[in-house]
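Colleagues,

For the teaching module next term, I've prepared a clean inverse folding example: a structure given as C-alpha cells, and then the sequence designed for it. I'd like students to try predicting residues themselves before seeing the answer, so please don't circulate the second half yet.
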C-alpha cells in the first residue's frame, strides 16, 4: 500500500484556511521546548547586561516576563492557533561571550554590521506545557520571539545591528505522536 499523501490540515479541499477541529482529540499533557538567540554586533550590550547597567533596566528579568506574556498571547498573534489554558511557561536566558578568536581583528576591519556578529549574545530556551487536545509548539516559539524582541528593544540604543536567529522547536511531547526531539 502507498503511504497517504502529506497535506496541510489547516486547508480545506478548496484551499480555504480554517481552524482545525480538536474536539475528538484526547486530552494529554503536552510540552514543547523552543530555543533561539540574540546576537550582538559589538561588545557593549553584553557588557551592560552582565553588569546590569543598561539604562532601561534588567534585560534578562524583563525579557523573561515578556516571553511568558508572549506565550499567553499566542492565539492573538497566530490566527489559526487554538486558545488553550497553559499549565506552565518557563523562560531561561543565558548570556554567551564573543565566540570567534578573530573577533578583535574583524572589529578593527570596519563598522559593525550584520556579518560581524561575534560579540556574544543571549540564548533563550522556553518550555511551555498544557493538559489539552492540542500541542504548545506555537506558544513556545512565540515565547522565544517575545523574549528575543524584548532583548533587542532594551539593547537597541547600544547595538543597532542585533540579530535574532536559530529559532526552532527542539522538543515536543504528548498527543498521539508521542515524543519528537531535534
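(Answer key — instructors only)
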Amino acid at each position: 500500500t502507498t503511504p497517504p499523501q502529506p497535506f496541510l490540515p489547516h486547508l480545506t479541499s478548496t484551499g480555504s484556511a480554517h481552524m482545525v477541529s480538536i474536539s475528538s482529540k484526547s486530552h494529554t499533557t503536552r510540552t514543547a521546548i523552543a530555543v533561539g538567540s540574540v546576537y550582538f554586533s559589538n561588545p557593549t550590550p553584553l557588557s551592560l547586561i552582565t553588569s546590569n547597567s543598561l539604562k532601561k533596566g534588567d534585560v534578562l528579568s524583563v525579557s523573561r516576563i515578556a516571553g511568558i506574556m508572549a506565550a499567553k498571547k499566542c492565539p492573538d498573534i497566530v490566527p489559526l492557533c487554538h486558545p488553550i489554558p497553559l499549565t506552565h511557561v518557563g523562560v531561561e536566558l543565558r548570556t554567551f561571550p564573543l565566540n570567534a578568536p578573530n573577533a578583535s581583528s574583524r572589529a578593527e576591519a570596519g563598522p559593525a554590521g550584520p556579518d560581524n556578529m561575534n560579540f556574544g549574545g543571549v540564548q533563550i530556551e522556553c518550555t511551555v506545557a498544557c493538559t489539552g487536545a492540542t500541542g504548545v509548539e506555537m506558544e513556545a516559539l512565540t515565547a522565544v520571539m517575545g523574549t528575543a524582541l524584548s532583548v533587542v528593544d532594551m539593547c537597541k540604543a547600544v547595538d543597532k545591528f542585533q540579530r535574532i536567529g536559530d529559532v526552532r522547536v527542539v522538543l515536543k511531547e504528548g498527543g498521539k505522536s508521542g515524543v519528537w526531539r531535534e
